[in-house]
Amino acid sequence: MHRTRTSAALTLTAICGVTLAAAPAFAAGTSTQDTSFVRAAHQGNLAEIAAGKDAENHATTECVRQVAAKFVTDHTKLDKDVRALAGKLNVSLPSGPSAEQRQSLAAVQGKAGTSAYDTAWLKLQSAAHTKTLAMIDQEISSGSNSAAVAAAKAARPVVKMHLSMVSGGTCHTPGASTAVHAGVATRAADSGSSTGVAALGAGGALTAVAAAWYLRSRRRATARR
User: Fold this and answer.
1) Sign of torsion, CA 114 117 122 123?
2) Would you tell me how many other CB atoms lie within 10 Å of the CB of residue 206?
3) pLDDT surpasses 70 at 11
């Protein structure tokens, strides 16, 4: 019986041309969601690095060039962590961006040297980072491997920051104040103004009381004379 099983296994190996050891052996606790996230994150990083380097060379505005440089720096760091995670989880990684990502960048490159390039690049990055943020949130909510989920949580604030720089196809330089911060400052200023008006009102009331007291005192003194 043992010989029959061995013979069957050898026959299967000869037909398929592979051994059981050749099948991917993912780390324990790693789901399809986790492996898909790691691979997509790697491709996303490669696509952002390529797009960033292209914009550094072809963008017509300083804002886009600064944002592009920031993207290259940050996604290079993120991808270093993704590759280390893939090694630990025994996840094979794609060698480059997806066909869709390459085609999208090629469409932008066709506008190189014109202001239309900057607009197209910003819109592409806004869409790409929106998609990446959704992918990260999916991993955080549905991932099984703690290391993969932790990596998603660590990358989220970086991707969210990047999205704020290109959201809606509008360029915002790295470190620029956001509309939310400006709104808070405005509300604080408005609040301060209201407080000042109230204080002035209170001061006016006190002044009126003091004036009335002074007039009554003068009248009494005159009556005594």
Assistant:
1) positive
2) 10
3) no
Q: Residue 132 and residue 40: Cα distance in Å, rounded? A: 9
Distance CA 6, CA 166 (A): 60
CA-based torsion, 84, 89, 95, 101: positive or negative = negative
Residues 37, 39, 45, 50, Cα dihedral to 10° = -150
Task: For residues 112 and 103, give the distance between their C-alpha atoms in angstroms, rounded to a whole number.
Answer: 15
The token pair at 59 is 């963008």
Average pLDDT over residues 23-49: 85
C-alpha–C-alpha distance, residues 38 and 136, integer Å:
10
Q: What is d(CA 189, CA 137) in angstroms, rounded to the nearest whole number?
A: 36
Q: What is the pLDDT of residue 25?
A: 45
| 156 vs 137: CA distance, rounded Å | 8
Do 74 and 158 contact (CB within 8 A), yes or no?
A: yes
* pLDDT at 221 exceeding the cut of 90: no
**In contact, 126 and 119? CB cutoff 8 Å:** no
The per-residue pLDDT of the chain, averaged, comes to 77
Is residue 174 very low, low, confident or very high in pLDDT (cuts 50, 70, 90)? Answer: confident
